[in-house]
Amino acid sequence: MSTENTLEHTITKADFEGKQEYTITVYAENRIGLLNRIAIIFSKRKINIESLNTSPSEIDGIHRFNIVITESYEVVRKLARQIEKQIEVLKVYFNTNEEIIWQELALYKVSTDEIAEKVTVERLLRQYGASAVVIRKDYTVFAVTGHREETDALVKALEPYELIEFVRSARVAIIKDSAGFHEKLKEFEAFEPGEELVENEFLDKGEKIFTM
Amino acid sequence: METAQDTIQQPEAKAETSKTLFKGTGSQMLLNGLIEEGVTTIFGYPGGAIMPIYDALYDYAEKLQHILVRHEQGGIHAAQGFARTSGKVGVCFATSGPGATNLVTGLADAQIDSTPLVCITGQVFAHLLGTDAFQETDVINITTPVTKWNYQVTDAKEIPEVLAKAFYIAKSGRPGPVLIDITKNAQLQVEEFPAYVKCNHIRSYRPKPKVRVEYIEQAAALINSAKKPFILFGQGVILGKAENEFKTFIEKSGIPAAWTILGDGAIPTSHSLNVGMLGMHGNYGPNVLTNECDVLIAIGMRFDDRVTGRLDKYAKQAKVIHLDIDPAEIDKNVKADVGVWGDCKETLPLLTNVVNENKHEDWLARFRDYNQQEIDQVITPELYPTSDEMTMGEVLRNINEICGGDAVIVTDVGQHQMVACRYAKFNNTRSNITSGGLGTMGFGLPAAIGAKYGAPEKTVIAIIGDGGFQMTPQELGTIMQFGAAVKILILNNRFLGMVRQWQQLFHDKRYSFVNITSPDFVALAKAYYIEADKVDERANLRKALETMINHDGSYLLEVMVGRENNVFPMVPQGMSVSEIRLK
């Protein structure tokens, strides 16, 4: 008697099983230890954080975390709720790559001699939209901002030419659909939360964004 | 509009009271704050890094009762027991390093069972942090995964605000444990403190939402069209102090209701709509009929795996309504067709207003049919055994007959726990105290001590196995010194019974390290000046239990029960709830 609807269930489940890259945006108070509190939500479930960035947000005193993981929708949704449950977290959004604008910054240190001698290198740099940050006799540092594939491609291209050092930042992302957090914050700062506010909205928009 | 006025009045009131500054140490401020929060009882253990607080406590003996436990784990379990019977926040003190790490099991237990606690730990001087000083441990990071919130105070000026936040966080929303780690310099620091102000809002924290009526209406529509509706209720009903609202709801809707072990007692065992216990060792009907109901209404429970069994075969035919205060629980394990996020104290009356009055006689009869099968095959042999060996069930039957369902029953973890939850009768809420989610052996004795302080007018019976008792027997010393009149009932089967049962059923009777020996428990109790007795024959059982319960003060009774009795029914791990076994 318990298997009647199993087929239907499997279909729904399969929809959500595909893993893809999600960017989780966390608005939180700037407090010591909160990074750990958020990080252990992932490590508890043995989920690897691929990229993590913390920075100020558009609101003074409120920090913004960008966390990138590759997981299924269902897993990400549950993670987002667990993060939002933390006392000092104000709000969590999670988005697929289509829903965000994002950039990463990469720095490349190469031998100046190599660049001076080999025109192809210069061409490569133009092609990848790199800019020179430092030029010294012994080495030159270039910077590239872009998506992972773009910064990775330049690493590959520079490999034959003495790439001395390479580093890439975490992803920073802006949500296309977001109207900012200011309005939301007013609700959070209301003395009596919930009285005049529409709550439970996440139940409406569960598929789109998670909001509490 | 009224709230806006309140906001304006608040600073004025503050300005007036802040004229009365309190000048003193951080430690004194902490104790003043505890008194302001209504704390009367603290369970704790002193040590180097918390000495200034204990020094201050010396002068507060009239206002704050401090119970000196024998181990910090005992202290925190006692605070849990206190919180569970009293409905207040449990408070415990421990020193830094080992004192603080000894709290971890209790914190994890309180976190998973949503028990409101405020734990204060001492910490080395702020200038020594990170130097591997004597008894320095990174308590904040150790306890982060097992606390609802934690904070390290390094400056006494932070103490009033942090303490107020701690109490607010511990008891609001879905309750949980909070830990405050206070460095020794902050405890000693002399400051002028403004008057203590309780916390009632943190901007990043939403303890509960305003309930949205549309979800209530959707839930009611499902309930009103249901032919076989079924309610599962958990501790949320008790934590929300919504027992009456819950009772009104089920009585109007006429829906059978079954409980998780932490929900047990929210309505009386004898209530006609109380159909029994859910889960692995729960009752036959509630488990089987979970997979037959058409609308499943979960109230303040979290679909733990011990309740659901195999998830992909769990209630697939049913529309699920889930009422919970924690939005992270909705859709976590079981997808809800209608999620009602809110405090059940508010959501249940709204739901009661819009559900139709109903009686589901035929559907209830199904539960009764299954119950009769269970009575015949399991319950009667357990409660009225014909063999010479005593059963745990018959001990519980006798307790029910003597106490009439008015006692607080505290259990440890294992077979005796399942038997006690299955058979104990409860007339009142907050009477069943057990370690549910974490399954902490050693919980029973210290929790019972705390439970007695939380409900001094009640008879408190700690039912503990021979294994679990040997995990925290040191707390007999606490009883000896402070006289908590706890009735300790050891059900001794000379095995780690639950593990043995699994080894018998699933590991070809390979009894690997479950054969545990015990000391002379009666002599042990008497060494602590606690009256004690032992029963190994049925003929003496009733009288011995009466003596224990009627004894003025604490009493230990050891009852020898059958060695290889099993707890049934049972949903074997990995099986569906409808595949529950009666033997």
Written description of the protein model:
The complex is a heterodimer of chains A (212) and B (583). Chain A is α+β, with helices and mostly antiparallel strands and 212 residues long. Chain A has helices at 6-17, 34-43, 73-84, 112-117, 119-127, 148-158, 182-189, 202-205; strands at residues 20-29, 51-56, 62-71, 89-96, 100-111, 131-135, 139-146, 163-168, 172-175. In chain A, 30% of the residues are buried. Mean pLDDT of chain A is 80; it is low at 1-15 and 191-212. Chain B is an alpha/beta fold and 583 residues long. Chains A and B meet through helix 2, helix 3 and helix 7 of A and helix 1 and strand 6 of B.
List the helices and strands and how they pair.
The complex is a heterodimer of chains A (212) and B (583).
Chain A: H1 6-17, E1 20-29, H2 34-43, E2 51-56, E3 62-71, H3 73-84, E4 89-96, E5 100-111, H4 112-117, H5 119-127, E6 131-135, E7 139-146, H6 148-158, E8 163-168, E9 172-175, H7 182-189, H8 202-205
Antiparallel strand pairs in A: 1-3, 1-4, 2-3, 5-7, 5-8, 5-9, 6-7
Chain B: H1 2-17, E1 22-25, H2 26-36, E2 41-44, H3 51-57, E3 65-68, H4 72-86, E4 90-94, H5 98-101, H6 104-112, E5 117-123, H7 139-143, E6 149-153, H8 159-171, E7 177-183, H9 184-188, E8 190-193, H10 213-225, E9 229-233, H11 236-239, H12 243-253, E10 257-259, E11 274-277, H13 284-290, E12 295-299, H14 305-308, E13 319-324, E14 338-341, H15 344-354, H16 361-383, H17 392-403, E15 408-411, H18 415-423, E16 432-433, H19 444-454, E17 460-465, H20 466-469, H21 476-482, E18 486-492, H22 497-506, H23 521-527, E19 531-535, H24 538-550, E20 555-560
Parallel strand pairs in B: 2-3, 2-4, 4-5, 5-7, 6-7, 9-10, 9-12, 10-11, 12-13, 13-14, 15-16, 15-17, 17-18, 18-20, 19-20
Antiparallel strand pairs in B: 1-8
Helix pairs in contact in B: 2-3, 2-8, 4-6, 4-19, 10-15, 12-15, 13-16, 17-18, 17-24
